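Exercise: predict the fold of this chain.
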Amino acid sequence: MLKRLCRERALHLMLLPSIVLLFLFHYIPLGGIVIAFQDYSPVRGILRSDWVGMGNFTYIFSLPTFPRVLRNTLLIACGKVVLNILVPVTFALLLNEIRSAAFKRTIQTVAYLPHFLSWVILGGILTDVLSPSTGIVNRILGLFGMEPVFFLGDAAIFPYTMIWTEIWKEMGFGAVIYLATLTGIDPTYYEAAVVDGATRWKQTVYITLPCLAPTIVLLSMLALGNVLNAGFDQVYNMYSISVYSTGDIIDTFIYRLGLEDFQFSPSAAVGLFKSAISTVLIILSYKLADITTGYRII
């Protein structure tokens, strides 16, 4: 082991800055979890604030808005998890059928580009594009005689807008893994299928999809850990008071509770609740990945 560490010391030194940053900004702040069990006051500080035990958890679970926030989070997050598997797989399969290499690279680049844009930028773009009065989407709908749709202001439509805009943003990036898997499929399978008279559709059903299945199952299992991550950046940059009933998620609820209402202890309790559930889901997802595909971290 020591000889290996010496041999790979350059690689470990390259990791050192990331480890230091991870320790400073992720592990040291864990000490602040204690305020979830206190009636925390910035004036008294952590050491002198009164202990309330599970009082903050009792308080947040009794809030009439908390079940709604949890329901919104699960709806948006589960929709993203499912469609972030189905849509990239479909896109990768369609892209794989393009025979022109130049056209294929162009389509892939265009689909890949939104991934590198922050939600601050995309939020402004989508606000204009989806505007009920001047947005291009509603102008197109108007050509077919349809009434304008208030995508970001209608509480019934807002969660689905969040899901589909997330899919649009990450579709190209998510397809990369599946495209890499497709390139690894033995071409002799397709050659044999052609000899047997199989159409492109049957080749996809009986060769491509079975070869993609282990990757799809693995990524589906690993995605379970994100069931409570509905996307703070996206929702915060695109929601408003009019859609709180269906668009308010756990992360935005924590933000408003802690930084706008200055209820630091209850917001910490909500954050700890989310972290505990997410930890259980991550452990479960890795266990399922190990059982179904044999994937292990070490």
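Check your answer against the key: The chain has a mean pLDDT of 86.
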